[in-house]
Amino acid sequence: MIEFSDYLQDLMNRYSVSASELSEETGIDRTVVYRYMKGKRVPSSVAVVEKLADALQISEKERKRLLQEYDKAILGESMVFSYQYMQKMLLDLDSLNENILLEKTSWSTTIEMRTENNFVCLHSQEEIITCILDLFRHAAYFDDSTEDLFVIMQPTYEGVQRFIPSIFRDKSMKVRQLICMEQNSRKDYKNLILLNNVLQPCFFLPNYEVYYYYDDLHAHINGMSFMPNIIIARDYVIQFDYKMEEGTVFQSREYAQVVRRQAERMLAESRSLLEKGQVSNMMENLLGTLKGRDAVSLSCQPCMGKCLDKSITQKHMRAFPGKDEFIASLFDVHGEWSEESYEESAPMRKAVSYGSIRGLNEFMRTGIIDEFPKTLYTPLAPAERLTVLKRMIELMQRGIIQYYFISDEIPLPTHVECYADVKSKQFLISKVSDGTILQLAINEKSLYNAFFAYLEYLDQKGLICSFEESLACMQKLYEKYL
């Protein structure tokens, strides 16, 4: 509420509009306008905020900010931030591909991992980043990979973090990173920033592992001691302070071993953050994880796995390693259709799927199912698409699965499936590429919490269709293509 009132006053001062003038322009009682300004009251609806914005004649950017501050006042800051960062993560995942790994580094090589008297002091961000990238290249190309690279550093240092994938792509050296996560449940959204910065290397580097420990981030940053960031290679150690103003490079295998032992002790007390499944037999790991559990999924296209049968799947799946195992696991989890009847022998207790009518329309138009890589199957024929849609409607009517449509004004990733495992409160991301499915299981409750805060925000804003509305949309679409 305070932020909304402060920003409203700031806009009024910026555009020289008094409370009386704003009252006269909007038709809102002057006393009520004063209450808005003092933070004693917030507008009763978005329409009132829009009316204030129109009267102030503010820019589109300022209007968006005013509406955002209103949302914080009504729904809570944590929910709004969770929505924003969850949305950013989804869009970043949608655009994430291996071409990003080919980006050229913008930092030049100057130090080339040579030191005098076994150490060198660094006195600027440019020197520190340049030296770290030199160490990365040295480790990737010149070490014999008998020891891994250990990085104790927050992924918010983007000048370093974003080069890890490009330097260690196709290299055998293991990179282990230890990061601090926010333990304050009211600030879970802060962890989303950190997670977003490690997703790229996690998806595309098979030997990149992330571990984490909980702390209060604010206290952690303020309490950082001398040289809290450490990068350890076989013969080198780089340490630098929080502000990247001072750093030191040590060229000493003995010192590296001592620091590594300390880091291993820290690691022993920490937990793995991301577990990867880069599986040739497609979704076996994901299906096995969700077997027998309640799950909520989100993607542009509603989940259709339950609506296939073996005859359709076997007809359209091309040959690939693990094909038979994948088909068997698919129907072991989702159940099977016998003619037009669904056998409820599947152990999946309950499933909820959020998607968009745009995504379902695209399936009906093309026969492409986003859950599977396009290179591994042929699109479904029009009659088969109708069969799948009919089964989706039947599953909804029988209460076996709940489909909800999100407004098309909300951008949803096309080839990214998000799954929230309700029982374990774990979060899974499945990204479909041309040839395979990359999977991450994220062992961090804040992402699970933010996912549901994201859905709650959309619901509060009236951007999710009700069960009845979603069912009616599906029936209307079926009649259109019948």
Give structural notes:
With 482 residues, the chain is α+β, with helices and mostly antiparallel strands. Helices cover 46% and strands 18% of the residues. It has an eight-stranded mixed beta sheet with strand order 1-7-6-5-2-3-4-8, with helices on both faces. The longest helix has 19 residues, at 77-95. It is flat.
Number of helices: 19
On the 0-100 scale, what is the average pLDDT? 82
Uncertain ranges: 107-111, 279-284
Shape: flat
Biggest β-sheet description: 8 strands, mixed
Strand order of the largest sheet: 1-7-6-5-2-3-4-8
Which structural class should the secondary elements be placed in?
alpha+beta
Assembly type of the chains comes to single chain
> How many angstroms does the end-to-end distance come to?
51 Å
Which key phrases capture this entry?
alpha+beta, eight-stranded mixed beta sheet, 482 residues, 19 helices
What can be said about this structure in brief?
The chain has 482 residues and is of the alpha+beta class.
Question: Would you spell out the secondary-structure blueprint of this structure?
Answer:
Blueprint (H helix, E strand, L loop, with lengths): L1 H13 L4 H8 L3 H9 L7 H11 L3 H16 L1 H19 L23 E4 L2 H18 L6 E4 L5 H4 L2 H5 L6 E8 L6 H16 L3 E8 L1 H6 L6 E4 L3 E5 L6 E5 L1 H16 L2 E2 L1 E6 L4 H7 L4 E4 L11 H7 L6 H12 L1 E3 L2 E3 L7 E5 L1 H10 L15 H16 L3 E5 L10 E6 L4 E7 L4 E6 L2 H16 L6 H15 L1
Parallel strand pairs: 2-3, 3-4, 10-13, 13-14
Antiparallel strand pairs: 1-7, 2-5, 4-8, 5-6, 6-7, 9-17, 10-15, 11-12, 15-16, 16-17
Helix pairs in contact: 1-5, 4-5, 5-6, 6-10, 6-18, 13-15, 16-17, 17-19
